[in-house]
Amino acid sequence: MRLFRSDDLLGIARETMEFVLEASEATHPNEYMGFLRADDASALDIDRDGQVITDVLVIPGTESSPMSASVRSHMKPNDMRSVGSVHSHPNGVLRPSDADLATFGQGEVHVIVGAPYGWGDWKAFDNEGNQRTLEVLDVEMPDEHFFDFTQEDIDRELGDANDDRGGFLSWLR
Questions:
Q1: 23 versus 151: which is more confidently predicted?
Q2: Locate the MPN domain: which residues (predicted)?
Q3: Contact 71, 85 (CB under 8 A)
Q4: Domain locations in the chain?
Q5: d(Cα 33, Cα 60) in Å, to the nearest integer?
C-alpha cells in the first residue's frame, strides 16, 4: 500500500457512469447532484499510476428542482477520495452555467449529464469550465461490504422480529 496516491485521474468506472446516468434519469425533471470519489488504480488491478472514479457520494439534505440542485456544504465530509462533482441538466444543455462554475472549485473534474441521459449525454469539465476528456474504464469494482446481505438474511431477521428472541428489527415492537 502506498502512502500517497497519484493525482492523475485515469477515468471513470463504467459501473459508476451507469449509476450516474440512471440516477440522473430517475431524478428527472429535477437536477441530480453528487460528489465523485476515486480509488487508486492499483486497487483495481490497473498497472498504471493514477486514480479511477468509482463512487458517487450523495449528501443528505440535497435539494433539487428542475432549475438547480443545492447541497448543504456543512454536510459534505472532508473526503480524501473526493475528485470532483456530478450533476444533471434536465434541459439537456451540456455546458456549465455561471452558477455551475461557482461550485467547480473543489476537485479536478466535474461531470454534467443531460436529458435523455444516454451514453452520449454527458461531458466532463475542469475547474475553469473547459471541456476535458474522461475515459470510461471497464474495471472490476472493489468489494464494498457495507450492504453485504441477501434477501434470505432479511427474511430471517424479519422472522426473528416476530418471535421472542429479538433480532435486528425487534425494537420496532
A1: 23
A2: 10-131
A3: no
A4: 9-141, 143-173
A5: 11
